[in-house]
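**User:** I keep going back and forth on a fold encoding question. It is easy to fool oneself when nobody else works the same problem. Could you pick a protein and write out its sequence and tokenised fold? Could you put it straight underneath, so I can go through it closely?

**Assistant:**
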Amino acid sequence: MRLLTALCLLLVAACQPSAKDSTHLSLEAPSPAAAAPVEFPGLHNVVAYGPDLYSGAVPEGVEGFESLRELGVRTVISVDGALPDVEAARSEGLRYVHLPIGYNGVSPERARELAKAIASLPGPIYVHCHHGKHRSAGALAVAGVMTGRFDNAYAIERMKVSGTAPTYTGLYQGAEQAKPLDAATLAGLECAFPEQSRPSGMVSGMVAIDEFNDQLKAIEKAGWSVPTHSPDLVPVSVAKQLVQHFEGLRTDEYTVKKGPEFLKLLDDNAQKASALQQALELKLAHEDLTARMKAVQASCKACHKLHRD
């Protein structure tokens, strides 16, 4: 009898769906008609822009990626500047695509890439930035209109549900001005969908670094907190992106040609920026943060004096 009972228990366990079985959905997907964002474990500010198109915040750890899997999501698109956690996504059977955009809107080239992504990659698709309120909403709004999934008015309405701040006029203009692509044009687009997009090219890299420096100045002015006029500027995230851009330029062709002296200066910039990032993570006093910010600025100026000015 005991042996028979044990065999029955084994058969019952074998019939249970695996924790990684994507067909076993334990979370109810949000409705495209919902008037407010939905929260899930490790997943915040989730808004449906279609039955298989979601915008939201960056997944938080294993819990966030588990929630995505349990929602049936198969592709995750990050439009944030920070490098995505590709390994965590893979562990849940999810594909990551990294197509970062700025706060000023979606460039025409990036808009076509995003449209092609949601038209051709396995769905459901989850698009995220950091908080899931601004860039992810703007990116999905533009891509959705371009692929004919919905019209401009609906796109703007969903952006407002996501909480996109009215101060991000470029994001709203993108949604207002987006136009559907014809089927032949959309089908003919050839786009690369990288898991991680590292900065390439000294000029573009320095432009981005200047932008992050300006954002950090705004954060410092706001008392080392999120500025009210730019609610998506998370201090730690901005500092982290600055570090990643410095590190990403180490292998640039221009850097290699400039030689070891220039590389040493670039490494010093990265170290100073990393020290600021760590201070922000530890929530040190404002005086310490300002001192480290000054060190970043001094390091940049020293490099400019020798190689740019």
